[in-house]
């Protein structure tokens, strides 16, 4: 709605112009206003991560974004493969700088200028990519990083900001640092006791001042799912927006869900330190669908729909009444992500890896559910399973499964997961199939000694999906990978035979 004031001013100063011109101007202003309102109403972004063994082609993803009316996207780097696909799409983009680049960009103004020239300026000017933000680092102050990025994040932020200004992009593109919600805390469970984390208090103050001076937003990732995952006694209902659990009363402000309480803890922390007006972007919010007993379709649907409904209602929190600016995490599943945080890590997508929606979700932009990716090409309808003649007592079973899972993806097996109810043979088949599909159905990837066989009967049952991968356009690269993987399997088989003998 910002354009309203300036347009009114414009109209006043042009009073003496011809009536026709005035009318044209009003009309144009009206269109702008309507467009602005649409942006506010349907304003949800998504995170587009790309750590997958079989990623959809970037152009397929961009078309899917448009089909779903998603007009903002957040990337984790600035790979030209994705930016090229976003050219002239009308989609606003937040590009990212991986933590590993922070020290280079912190120590060299020239490196920052090169980064901006190559990864921002060229796309904005000649490629028509609507870049609006640069995210410098990603959750750089997580305790697991042992302070590695404490000294480099702010200098990198400063150098990138200076480089953007030098490139003439200082007003159009804002810098920010996506931070985990652990950079602030409350001594009690009351938001009003919120303050910055003590070990990084001074650094955070400098970052807040820098963002404030440069019009950059504070970007925070908020994960009620992780609260639940880490604390089994967490009141599960409080994680959702339609909660029935007893609310927290903070001096008259009532909190019915953990998101509001967490967001307002941040608002209080900002306010207490003199930056109560800093704008806030929720950089990541979402719920995974597999890999943990609380990660399932039902909970993910409940959480994301609850969140979207309030975003669309323009409803803020008790401390900040305005609309919430957010990016859902995430667009599609990524089967090559590290599972160090937990098996759920590969299942954050609103859509499966192949662009198929997982559940009914209305983003509130007139569409009733998510629209699937179009023109997706799959590998053949065949699966690798434990052969009917193989015995569970075969001494090679354990090592074979462990090899398959170590090199593929077994995060849908285990207590409370989508394939958690498979029997022992089903488990083994799932592991074999995952390995076979990730290796593009290579014959040699279904040669677990005397244990496996290829079938054309789909072994999937209920929610437990035995996947078939999609064809990717990187045939050459995949070929090399396939080769080294099958050499790996051969080496393993030989080693095993050797041990047996
Ligand atoms: C541009 O971004 C890519 C991907 O993040 C990175 O690999 C590359 O080094 C960047 N280019 C420059 C000149 O810094
Ligand atoms: C952080 O420190 C711990 C303990 O010293 C170590 O095990 C871990 O590998 C370190 N992590 C990183 C990212 O440096
Ligand atoms: C915050 O914004 C309000 C309204 O725009 C303004 O009146 C106030 O002075 C601002 N406070 C600070 C600390 O900038
Ligand atoms: C199937 O595999 C999972 C994960 O490895 C394990 O927890 C479960 O006990 C297995 N089930 C059977 C019946 O072997
Ligand atoms: C596979 O089974 C055959 C016949 O049962 C046996 O001779 C052979 O040693 C087995 N191979 C391995 C690798 O266990």
From TrEMBL:
> So which residues are the signal peptide here?
none
Q: Name one GO cellular component term.
A: plasma membrane
GO BP annotations of the record are:
carbohydrate metabolic process; defense response
Keyword Nucleotide-binding among UniProt keywords: no
Question: Which cell locations does it reside in?
Answer: Cell membrane
Keyword Transmembrane helix in annotation: yes
Main EC class of this protein?
hydrolase
Q: Which reaction does it catalyse?
A: Hydrolysis of (1->3)-beta-D-glucosidic linkages in (1->3)-beta-D-glucans
Which keywords does UniProt give here?
Answer: Cell membrane, Disulfide bond, Glycoprotein, Glycosidase, GPI-anchor, Hydrolase, Lipoprotein, Membrane, Plant defense, Signal, Transmembrane, Transmembrane helix
- Give the transmembrane ranges: 21-48
- Which ranges carry the X8 domain? 382-466
Q: Which Pfam families does the annotation name?
A: Glyco_hydro_17, X8
Main localisation: membrane
Family as reported in the entry's similarity comment: Belongs to the glycosyl hydrolase 17 family.
State the name under which the record lists this protein.
glucan endo-1,3-beta-D-glucosidase
